[in-house]
Amino acid sequence: MKLTLSHIKADVGGYVGHSASHPEVLAKADECLTKAKQAGLLIDYHVTKCGDDLQLIMTHQQGEESPQIHKLAWDTFLEGTEIAKKLKLYGAGQDLLSDAFSGNVKGMGPGVAEMEFEERKSEPVIIFMADKTSAGAWNMPLYKMFADPFNTIGLVIAPNMHAGFTFEVHDVKGHKRITLHAPEEIYDLLVFIGAPSRYVVKAVYHRGTGEIASVSSTQRLSLIADRYVGKDDPVCIVRAQGNFPAVGEILEPFTFPILVQGWMRGSHHGPFMPVSIPDSTPTRFDGPPRVTAAGFQLAEGKLIGPRDMFADKSFDLARQQANEIANYMRRHGPFEPHRLPLEEMEYTTMPQVVSKLEGRFVDLG
Ligand code: 13P
Ligand code: 13P
Ligand code: MG
Ligand code: MG
C-alpha cells in the first residue's frame, strides 16, 4: 500500500509568550482534521505541539505536495489563528507569512516534511519536533544515525545497512542541492553539513533499495520573510528497523545535547535538550531549545501511538547536561559565542547604533 506521511507545522500563537501552545488551539486543529478524516481525505492524523508550535501529523494517499492536504493544513492554521487572536495569544498567526493560499504551503511560513512509501510489514517511524531552533539542527543527529558506526552499530554488523546511506543536502542560501554517499564521501559531506545555518540535510535514502529513510523540513523562515519572524522550529521524520537504523540507534544521538542556533530572539547558541512532549515548554530565556520524539507504528496508514520516546529515564543525564550547558552559555550574556555572530543574528540594532554613532568613528590612522 502506497502511503504518504505528511507533517506540517506552524506557530499560530504562543501561550504564554513563546513558551507553549494553548489547549483550545490544539482542540480546534483536532476538530478540523476529524472532519477531513470523516470526509475520507485523511486515513488518520495526530495533532500535537512542541513548545509554541502546532504540529499536524497526517496519513493519506494523495502523494507529496498535494494541494488538498496543504490546503487542509493551511485552513487549520487559519482556524487556530482565529482562536489565538480571540485569546490574544502571543504572535497570533506568527508563521503564516502570506494572506493567500496558492496550492502549497512551502515558502508561506509553515514547516513541511513529507514522504511517500510502501508501508512495510511493520512500519515504525519516529517524528522529531523542535522548538527554538533552526532547520540545520538535524544535521549532526542524522549524520550520527545514518553514517556514524560509533552511534549505529547496524552500519557495521547488519548486512542490509552495510552499503550505507545517501544524503540529500540543500544549500538554503544558494537554492541548490547535492547528493552525497556515505560512507565513501563522508569527508565531503561533513564540509557542508558542519555549517548547518547554510547546508541542511533534507532527506536520507537507503543505498541498496533507494527507499526513503528520513525527511526533514528545511524552510528557513528568516530567508523566506527577509526579516525576523521567529525560529524555524523544524521537524524530521525517520523510518526505523529493517533496512533502517533501529529505534534505539535513531534516538541515541540525542543523548548528547549539541549546541544549536535559536533560543532567545532566535539569536543565540544553546543546548538541544531532549524532553517529553508535556515538557516542551521553553521558559528559561525562552529555552533552552527543545526536541521531542513521537513514535508510531503504522498499520494500513493508521497512526498507532504516539509513544513519547524521550519520556524515558535514560535521557535524564542529557537533560541535566543541557541545563548545565545552558548555565554556562548564559553567563556569556551578550557576548559571542552565546550570542550568534552578527551575520547570523535574526535581528539586530547594529545599523541604528552605527548610524547614531557615525560621526564618532575616527580613522585609526
Ligand atoms: P517582542 O519585541 O515582540 O516583545 O518580541 C520579542 C520576542 O519574543 C522575540 O521573538
Ligand atoms: P518561536 O520561533 O518559537 O516563536 O520563538 C521566537 C523567539 O524569538 C523566542 O525568543
Ligand atoms: Mg512563537
Ligand atoms: Mg516555536
Would you give an account of this structure?
There is one protein chain. This protein has 365 residues and is of the alpha+beta class. It contains nine helices and 15 strands. It has helices spanning 23-38, 67-86, 139-147, 154-157, 186-193, 221-225, 247-251, 316-330, 350-356; strands spanning 2-10, 44-50, 53-60, 111-118, 123-131, 165-171, 176-181, 199-206, 212-216, 235-239, 259-262, 268-271, 273-274, 290-299, 302-308. Helix 1 (23-38) runs antiparallel to helix 2 (67-86). It is globular. It starts with a strand and ends in a 9-residue tail after the last helix. One magnesium ion binds at residues 11, 18, 51-53, 131, 231, 233.
What is the chain-wise order of helices and strands?
A: EHEEHEEHHEEHEEHEHEEEEEHH
**Gyration radius from CA atoms, angstroms:** 20 Å
Q: Could you name the ranges where pLDDT drops below 50 across 5 or more consecutive residues?
A: none
Q: How many DSSP helices?
A: 9
| Beta-strand segment tally | 15
The shape, in one word, is globular
* First-last Cα distance: 73 Å
Short description:
With 365 residues, this protein is α+β, with helices and mostly antiparallel strands. It has helices at residues 23-38, 67-86, 139-147, 154-157, 186-193, 221-225, 247-251, 316-330, 350-356; strands at 2-10, 44-50, 53-60, 111-118, 123-131, 165-171, 176-181, 199-206, 212-216, 235-239, 259-262, 268-271, 273-274, 290-299, 302-308.
